[in-house]
Specification:
The protein is of the alpha/beta class. It has 2 domains: 2-60 and 124-295, Rossmann fold; 63-121, 2-Layer Sandwich (Alpha-Beta Plaits). It has helices at 15-28, 45-49, 77-81, 106-110, 149-166, 182-188, 202-217, 233-245, 258-265, 270-273, 278-295, and strands spanning 2-8, 33-37, 52-59, 62-67, 87-90, 93-96, 116-121, 124-130, 136-142, 171-178, 193-198, 222-227, 249-254.
C-alpha cells in the first residue's frame, strides 16, 4: 500500500478538490483506494465524495482537570498556580473551565486534600463512510472548543491505515490540514509521497515553502501542483523554478475553471461533474503523472 498525503501551505488552494479527484480517478483506473480526511478542524472531503456513514466512534486524546467539590476545602492554591487561567472561583467554589484547561496536572500536585483529578475527555470523532463510488473513507472531526488536533489527526491516520490493510488497498489517499502546524506535520508522518497544492500568489508561495521545508526535513519525496496557474503567469513561472530548485516533481498545473465552483456547489468532484472541463482534463494528466512517479520510485 502506498500512502499519499495532499497538503497545502494555506487554505483555499484547492487541496480538497485535488484529493477527491485523485481518489475518484484511482478508483476508476482499477486501483483499490481508501480516502481519508485529516483536516479535523474543518473536514469536508465527504461533501465531494458523497459519503454514507457506516460507523462512528468518539476518541480521547487529551486530559482535563476536574475538582471534587465534596473534597475541596477552597484553599485556592490550584488557582494560584494555574498558568492557563483555567480555574475560577464562583459562589459555588472553585471550578475548572474546560475550554482553558491544558491538563498539565500542576493543580493536582499542589492540592492539599486530593480534590483534583486529571481525566481523559472526549476530543473528537472518527467516522467511517462508504463513498458513492463504492470505496471507503475515514474522516476525523475535532470537537468544538477542544485541543489536540495533531493527536486526533494521528488517530484518524491509524484508523485509515487499519482499514486500508483490511481491504488490501493499493492507495491510501489523505486530505491533510492546511498550513504547517502540528496537525499538518502529523498528517505527513509516515507518508510515502506528499503532494503539495499551491496557487500563483505571493502568500501561497511563502506558505507552501514552509510546508515543503517540513516535508524535506522528514525526507519524504514530494510533487507540486499549481492550481489556477493562468491567473498570474509570472508567479507561476517562479513556482515552477522553485519546485525544481527544492527537488520537487512538477505533477502538473490546473487552469482557473468556473466549472470547479459549479461542481463544489453541487457537492461533486470536478472529474465526475464535468469530465470534459479543462480542470478535469488537467487533473487526469496529473493523476497519470502521479502514477508514473510512484511506479518509478518517487
Amino acid at each position: 500500500m502506498i500512502e499519499i498525503v495532499i497538503v497545502s501551505g494555506k487554505g483555499g488552494t484547492g487541496k480538497t478538490t485535488v484529493t477527491s479527484s485523485l481518489a475518484l480517478l484511482a478508483n476508476k483506473n482499477g486501483f483499490k483506494a481508501v480516502a481519508a480526511d485529516t483536516d479535523v478542524d474543518a473536514p469536508n472531503l465527504a461533501l465531494l465524495l458523497n459519503g454514507e456513514v457506516v460507523s462512528k466512534k468518539t476518541i480521547q486524546v487529551s486530559e482535563k482537570a476536574s475538582i471534587d467539590r465534596e473534597k475541596c476545602n477552597d484553599c485556592g492554591k490550584c488557582m494560584e498556580v494555574c498558568k492557563f487561567d483555567a480555574i475560577r472561583k464562583s459562589d459555588e467554589g472553585y471550578a475548572v473551565s474546560r475550554l482553558y484547561c491544558e491538563g498539565c496536572g500542576l493543580c493536582q500536585i499542589v492540592c492539599p486534600v486530593d480534590a483534583i483529578d486529571i481525566k481523559p475527555v472526549d476530543n473528537g470523532e472518527i467516522t467511517i463512510l462508504k463513498t458513492s463510488s463504492g470505496f471507503p473513507m475515514v474522516m476525523g472531526h475535532l470537537m468544538i472548543g477542544e485541543s489536540g488536533s495533531g493527536k486526533v489527526v494521528a488517530e484518524v491516520k491509524e484508523e485509515a491505515r487499519k482499514l486500508a490493510r483490511e481491504v488490501n488497498a493499493d492507495l491510501l489517499i489523505i486530505d491533510g490540514p492546511p498550513g504547517s502546524g502540528c496537525a499538518a506535520i502529523a498528517s505527513i508522518s509516515g507518508a510515502n509521497f506528499v503532494v503539495t497544492v499551491t496557487e500563483p500568489t505571493m502568500a501561497a508561495k511563502h506558505d507552501v515553502g514552509r510546508m515543503i521545508s517540513i516535508v524535506k526535513h522528514f525526507g519524504i519525496p514530494f510533487g507540486v501542483i499549481i492550481n489556477k496557474f493562468d491567473i498570474f503567469p509570472e508567479m507561476t513561472s517562479e513556482l515552477r523554478s522553485y519546485a525544481k530548485e527544492v527537488g520537487g516533481i512538477m505533477l502538473g498545473e490546473i487552469p482557473a475553471d468556473e466549472n470547479v465552483v459549479r461542481a463544489v456547489v453541487n457537492n461533486s468532484s470536478i472529474v465526475e461533474y464535468d469530465p470534459s472541463s479543462p480542470a478535469a482534463k488537467a487533473l487526469g494528466r496529473i493523476f497519470d503523472n502521479l502514477v508514473e512517479t510512484l511506479n518509478s520510485g518517487g
